[in-house]
Amino acid sequence: MSKHTLTALACLLAGAAICIVSCKKDTTPSASVNQAGVSQATLDKISALGFSTADVRKFDGKYLVEGDILLSDADLNTKANSPFLTTAKEEQYRTNYVVTGLPRQITVRVASSLGSAFVAGTDTAIARYNRLGLTLTFRRITSGTANITISGFNQGPSGGFITLGSSGFPTSSGNPYNSILMNTNSAAYGSNPNVLYVGSVIQHEIGHCIGFRHTDYFNRALSCGGTATNEGSAGIGAILIPGTPSGNSANSWMLACSNGGNRTFNANDIVALNYLY
Question: For this UniProt entry, which residues form the secretion signal (predicted)?
Answer without folding.
Answer: 1-19
